Amino acid sequence: MHFFVFLPFLASLVLVLLADHRDPQHINHEIDDSEFCTYDGRIGHCEAILDCKREIPKKELFQRRHACSHVAYRETICCEMTGSIDYPGRIVGGDDTAPWEYPWMAALLTKSSNKRPFCGGSLISPVHVLTAAHCAKHILPDPTSFRVRIGEHNFDSELETDYRNFRVQNVSIHPNYTSSYTIKDDLAILELNASCMDKPRTVCLPEVPNDFRNHEAVVIGWGVTEAGKNQPPILQEVTVEVYPQVKCEEAYENFKITDSHLCAGIQENGGKDSCQGDSGGPLHVKLKGRWVQVGIVSFGIGCAEALHPGVYTNVSSYLSWIADVLDPYTLNDELCGESLEQDPKMFEDCPNGAVSSRSLIQALLPSLTIPILLFSISSSFLPSLAT
Ligand SMILES: *[C@@H]1O[C@H](CO)[C@@H](O)[C@H](O)[C@H]1NC(C)=O
Ligand SMILES: *[C@@H]1O[C@H](CO)[C@@H](O)[C@H](O)[C@H]1NC(C)=O
Ligand SMILES: *[C@@H]1O[C@H](CO)[C@@H](O)[C@H](O)[C@H]1NC(C)=O
Ligand SMILES: *[C@@H]1O[C@H](CO)[C@@H](O)[C@H](O)[C@H]1NC(C)=O
């Protein structure tokens, strides 16, 4: 009994420790006992029942007295704060990608800090980047303070790929995006000022809604590779498996997982190697030699945890909304989803002004090699990685 209570508690603790330090809401966020008030030890606040605007599961009602005391004459209950935590996505047990292996990968940067992205995204048209709503919500209030970089591979090296920074012209967050109690409809589309991209390398999206359970999928991102470590400079990739829906629901019992969510991780071997990519980044499967994006990194409890796979936005569920936002651009051009071995030269007509950080001195210095500590990845997953 204690064991079961303790484990989720630990997970919550890890979560709090990892809570995105970039989210201003959580700076100096004090942790006190009442924050671990859910019956299974997750994070919440004790609030008056009437103020807690969500459905309360019966077993939680039953156990509420263990955690939340009566405040005056009002009965309080634990109101979960799942949505208010920005889960820092991270690739655990991953591998360096090759330059241009995933040329659609987008890095979301703040104008003032362009050394590592705070979120990922994927190019789905010459001017549109698909990402998570919880990433885009940071951009929405002041898009001019952000940049989207396409073509980056190694943030600590200036010469290995050609990249461009673009401005965000429009932010479309899914109208039903919710981040309280559960996180749902966590997707958004950023429109870039990228009229110059003649040969954009986009990722494919599913042609029709489809079920991708039991598919092997690859998630990519610049998220941290281990708790407490810095983000790696080189784009990481890791292979995971898309869970059957019922397993996803079991793993996140209280999160109201629906068909519009998708879970991916490593089901066997205790999940030591399972991972989650940078928030907003793509999870894709290879179909007929092309990469098709099936998920957007959304949230998870901890990382590399057997019981808690990463949760993704199920792209198949949103194809018509995405198509509407993209109009008049269309999805899935004939070049979509191809890994490349060389620079696709998609920026030939793009002004280079945005890349002000490129200085000769930087370019001449050998790039700083930061050793990346990786958890072991079971070798059975390695051969399936695209090269
Ligand atoms: C931004 O995108 C929305 C669609 O999501 C569209 O209705 C709106 O007109 C766009 N605004 C601009 C300034 O392009
Ligand atoms: C948002 O939710 C409402 C109510 O469930 C639904 O009718 C509507 O179609 C949803 N909007 C989108 C863009 O899916
Ligand atoms: C994702 O959405 C599609 C279409 O709504 C659905 O068929 C599928 O079961 C969902 N889940 C997975 C894991 O693909
Ligand atoms: C897009 O915005 C960037 C950053 O402000 C600017 O340097 C670049 O010239 C713009 N590109 C186009 C095609 O307008």
UniProtKB/TrEMBL annotation:
Superkingdom to which the source organism belongs: Eukaryota
UniProt keyword list: Disulfide bond, Hydrolase, Protease, Secreted, Serine protease, Signal
InterPro entries: Peptidase_S1_PA, Peptidase_S1_PA_chymotrypsin, Peptidase_S1A, Serine_Proteases_S1, Trypsin_dom, TRYPSIN_HIS, TRYPSIN_SER
Entries under Gene3D superfamilies matching the protein: Trypsin-like serine proteases (2.40.10.10)
Pfam families per the UniProt record, alphabetical: Trypsin
SUPFAM superfamilies, per the entry: Trypsin-like serine proteases (SSF50494)
All copies of domain Peptidase S1, residue ranges: 91-327
Entry keyword Transport: no
Signal peptide: 1-19
GO biological process: proteolysis
GO cellular component: extracellular space
GO molecular function: serine-type endopeptidase activity
Subcellular location: Secreted
Hydrolase in keyword set: yes
Protein name: Peptidase S1 domain-containing protein
